[in-house]
C-alpha cells in the first residue's frame, strides 16, 4: 500500500492518580486564575478510560458556545449519546479495535462500549486537569473543600482507549486516539498510560511518541505520566513529551499507632470511622496458618483473630483493601499494614479500621512483637491535616536514568500525585472491588497518573497567557522555574531512600506555575530540531520516516544528541571521554526586555563546568543568544557512585533560570 510506512508490534499498556491547586499557589481571581486568563477557549484532550459525563465537575454552567475551531464529535454507544456532551465536555470518542484484535469482543458486562467509563481513572484525570468548580467535595468527609481542575474553564474532549479486562490499553488504539485528537483541534493532550512493565522503548518503536510528534508539529502540548515502578523505569521519554513524576502535597490523613510499650508512630488511612482502643495485636503464626503474615484468604484463624488487630505484610497482586476486608471477614477488629515501598505507605479507601505504616514503624513493631507475649496497640484516626513537610517524592514514582537516551534527563519535573481528590463515576465503588457497595462522587487516588493531568491543566493556563508560545516553550518555562526546596527550606526529600531527591527522581524540580508564567528566558525547540536530534542518534531513513515522511537527514550532521536545546543537561561520559561540550540558545521573554544574566554553576562532584560566554546581555524582547557549556572530568567517580549532580543557573536582577546537570559514566 502506498500509505504503508512500517509495521510495529502492538503492545499492551497500563494506566499510571481539592487541595492541590492551593498547594500550587492558584487562587480564585488572582494570577493565572484571573478572569481574563480563564476566558479564552483551551481544549484539553484526555486519552484514558472514558468519562462519567453526568458528574458535576463536567457541568457547563457559565460556558459560552463551543469554540469554532473544534472539529470533533460526541460518538454514541452503550448508554452514551451526543446529548451527554455539552459546552464543557465538547467531545467524546472511543477506540477498541486494537483491544478486540487481541482479546476478542469487548466484554459489555464489564464495559460500556462507548465513551462512558466504568473504570474511574479517566474521570479522575479529566477533572484534575479541567474539572469545573464543585463546592463541598470530599471522600467521606476527608479532604473536604472546593474541587477544581487546574484550568477549570477549559473544554474537555475524552478519548477512551482502555477497557476493563486483561491488558486493557493497546498501542494502536492510543495511536488512533492521538491522531483523532489532533484532527479534532485540541490544544493539550493528557495521557496517563505507559508500558505495563514500566520503562520505555526506542522512539522508532514508540507509536505514542510518533503520533505525539505529529501533534507537536501542529503546536499541541503533550503531558504524559512517568510511571509507577521506581528506579530505572521512567517511561514516555521522547524529548517532545513532558514526562511527569509524582510527589506529595502538605495534606495528609494520619493515623496514630500507639504500642503497648508507649511507642508512637504515624501511619496513614482513609478510614473515617471511630478510633480503636488498645487491643491485642497478632502477626504471622499468632494469627493463623503459614503465610498468615500476608493476610490472604485461607491463612487467618477466625478463632485467633476475633476482636484483635492483625498486622499484614503487603504482597503483590493483593492490595491493602483486600487484606483489610479479609481481616474484617474473619472477625478482626482492625489491621496495621506494612507496605512494600519503604517509607511510602499507601492510603486505600478501606471500610474497616486499617492503617498503613512505613519501614521505620514496621521494624519497631516487629521488635515489639518479639519482646512481649501480650502485645497491644491502639489506632487513632486523625482525619485530614495540613502543613506536613512537602513536597516529597513518592517512592513509587518512576525514575531515571533514561535508558533510551542517556543524553536526555527524564522525568522532566514533578507535580502533586499522592492522595489526589477528584471526580469519580457513580457506578463504580471507590476501591473498584466487586464486594464494595459504596458509591462516591469523589475519590482519592495516587500515581503519576494523577500528577500528569495537573501539568496538563497548568500547561493550558500558560497557553492562555502566552498564546504565541510553542509546546517546547511552555515546557521550558515550567522546567526552568521549578523549585527544589520544600516548605521547610530543605532539599526536597525522596521517600524511596530518605535522602534528598536527585534529578533522576524529580527532574528539574517541582512545578511552580506562577513563576512559569514569567520565566525570563526560554529554551525553545522547533519541531525540525527534534528531527535533527533523531538524526544524531543515527536513525535510518525508514526510521525517520515514522516521524516525518518529508524529512531527510543531512549527509553530514554536526549535531550531537546533547546539543538538542533542552532545558536540562544530561552528560553521559564514555570511558575515553574527558571533555564534552554542549550548545544552547535562550530566548528573552522577560519584562523589562533589557536585562543582563550572569551564570552560576553548581558543579557536579568530579566535574569542572565552563560556560562561554558567562554573561548574556539582552536588549530586546524575543532576542536569542547562544552559549556553550563544557563538562570536563577532573576526578572519575568509582563504579558504585556512577552519577553526580549539579545545576546551571542564569541569574538577572529579576529572574533565575535553572537547569539541572546529571553526569553519568557509561562503560
From TrEMBL:
The record, for Pfam families, names: fn3_6 (PF17766), Peptidase_S8 (PF00082)
CDD domains, alphabetized: PA_subtilisin_like, Peptidases_S8_3
Q: MF terms per GO, please?
A: serine-type endopeptidase activity
* GO terms, biological process: proteolysis
Task: Name the residues annotated as catalytic in the UniProt entry.
Answer: 48, 121, 449
Q: Which UniProt keywords apply?
A: Glycoprotein, Hydrolase, Protease, Serine protease, Signal
Q: What is this protein called?
A: Uncharacterized protein
Organism for this UniProt entry: Rubroshorea leprosula
Amino acid at each position: 500500500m502506498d500509505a504503508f510506512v512500517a509495521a510495529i508490534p502492538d503492545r499492551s499498556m497500563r494506566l499510571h492518580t481539592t487541595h492541590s491547586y492551593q498547594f500550587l499557589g492558584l487562587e480564585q481571581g488572582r494570577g493565572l486564575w484571573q478572569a481574563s486568563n480563564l476566558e479564552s477557549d483551551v481544549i484539553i484532550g484526555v486519552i484514558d478510560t472514558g468519562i462519567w459525563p453526568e458528574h458535576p465537575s463536567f457541568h457547563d454552567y457559565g460556558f459560552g458556545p463551543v469554540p469554532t475551531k473544534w472539529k470533533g464529535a460526541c460518538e454514541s454507544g452503550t448508554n452514551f449519546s451526543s446529548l451527554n456532551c455539552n459546552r464543557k465536555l465538547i467531545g467524546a470518542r472511543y477506540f477498541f479495535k486494537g483491544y478486540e484484535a487481541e482479546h476478542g469482543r469487548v466484554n459489555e458486562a464489564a464495559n460500556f462500549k462507548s465513551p462512558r467509563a466504568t473504570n474511574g481513572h479517566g474521570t479522575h484525570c479529566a477533572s484534575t486537569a479541567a474539572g469545573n468548580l464543585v463546592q463541598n467535595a470530599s471522600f467521606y468527609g476527608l479532604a473536604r473543600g472546593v474541587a477544581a481542575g487546574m484550568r477549570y474553564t477549559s473544554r474537555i474532549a475524552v478519548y477512551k482507549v482502555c477497557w476493563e479486562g486483561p491488558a486493557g490499553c493497546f498501542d494502536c488504539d492510543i495511536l488512533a486516539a492521538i491522531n483523532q485528537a489532533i484532527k479534532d483541534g485540541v490544544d493539550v493532550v493528557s495521557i496517563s498510560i505507559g508500558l505495563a512493565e514500566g520503562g520505555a522503548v526506542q522512539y522508532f518503536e514508540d507509536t505514542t511518541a510518533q503520533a505525539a510528534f505529529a501533534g507537536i508539529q501542529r503546536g499541541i502540548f503533550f503531558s504524559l505520566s512517568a510511571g509507577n515502578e521506581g528506579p530505572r523505569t521512567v517511561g514516555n521519554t521522547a524529548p517532545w513529551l513532558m514526562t511527569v513524576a509524582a510527589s506529595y502535597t502538605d495534606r495528609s490523613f494520619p493515623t496514630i499507632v500507639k504500642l503497648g510499650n508507649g511507642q508512637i508512630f504515624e501511619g496513614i488511612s482513609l478510614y473515617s470511622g471511630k478510633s480503636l482502643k488498645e487491643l491485642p495485636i497478632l502477626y504471622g503464626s499468632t494469627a493463623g496458618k503459614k503465610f498468615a503474615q500476608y493476610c490472604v484468604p485461607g491463612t487467618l484463624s477466625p478463632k485467633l483473630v476475633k476482636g484483635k488487630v492483625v498486622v499484614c505484610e503487603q504482597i503483590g497482586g493483593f492490595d491493602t483493601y483486600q487484606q483489610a476486608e479479609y481481616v474484617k471477614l474473619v472477625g478482626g477488629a482492625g489491621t496495621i499494614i506494612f507496605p512494600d515501598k519503604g517509607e511510602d505507605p499507601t492510603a486505600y479507601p478501606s471500610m474497616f479500621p486499617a492503617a498503613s505504616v512505613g519501614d521505620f514503624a514496621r521494624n519497631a513493631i516487629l521488635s515489639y512483637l518479639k519482646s512481649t507475649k501480650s502485645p497491644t496497640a491502639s489506632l487513632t484516626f486523625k482525619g485530614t491535616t495540613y502543613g506536613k513537610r512537602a513536597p516529597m517524592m513518592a517512592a513509587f514514582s518512576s525514575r531515571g536514568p533514561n535508558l533510551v537516551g542517556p543524553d536526555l534527563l527524564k522525568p522532566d519535573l514533578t507535580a502533586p500525585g499522592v492522595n489526589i481528590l477528584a471526580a469519580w463515576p457513580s457506578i463504580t465503588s471507590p476501591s473498584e472491588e466487586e464486594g464494595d457497595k459504596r458509591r462516591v462522587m469523589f475519590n482519592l487516588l495516587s500515581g503519576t497518573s494523577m500528577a500528569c493531568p495537573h501539568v496538563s491543566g497548568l500547561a493550558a493556563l500558560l497557553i492562555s497567557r502566552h498564546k504565541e508560545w510553542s509546546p517546547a516553550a511552555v515546557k521550558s518555562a515550567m522546567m526552568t522555574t521549578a523549585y527544589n526546596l520544600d516548605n521547610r527550606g530543605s532539599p526536597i526529600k525522596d521517600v524511596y531512600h530518605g535522602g534528598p531527591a536527585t534529578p533522576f527522581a524529580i527532574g528539574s524540580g517541582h512545578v511552580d506555575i506562577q513563576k512559569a508564567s514569567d520565566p525570563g528566558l526560554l529554551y525553545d525547540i522547533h519541531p525540525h530540531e527534534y528531527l535533527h536530534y533523531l538524526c544524531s542518534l543515527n536513525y535510518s531513513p525508514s526510521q525517520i520516516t515514522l516521524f516525518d515522511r518529508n524529512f531527510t537527514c543531512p549527509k553530514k550532521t554536526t549535531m550531537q544528541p546533547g546539543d538538542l536545546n533542552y532545558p536540562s543537561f544530561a552528560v553521559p561520559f564514555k570511558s575515553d571521554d574527558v571533555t564534552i561540550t554542549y550548545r544552547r540558545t535562550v530566548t528573552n521573554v522577560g519584562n523589562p526586555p533589557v536585562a543582563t544574566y550572569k551564570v552560576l554553576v553548581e558543579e557536579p562532584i568530579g566535574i569542572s563546568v565552563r560556560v562561554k560566554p558567562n554573561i548574556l546581555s539582552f536588549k530586546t524582547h524575543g532576542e536569542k543568544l547562544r552559549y556553550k557549556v563544557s563538562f570536563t572530568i577532573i576526578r572519575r567517580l568509582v563504579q558504585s557512585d556512577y552519577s553526580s549532580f549539579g545545576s546551571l543557573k542564569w541569574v538577572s536582577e529579576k529572574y533565575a533560570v535553572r537547569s539541572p546537570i546529571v553526569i553519568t559514566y557509561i562503560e
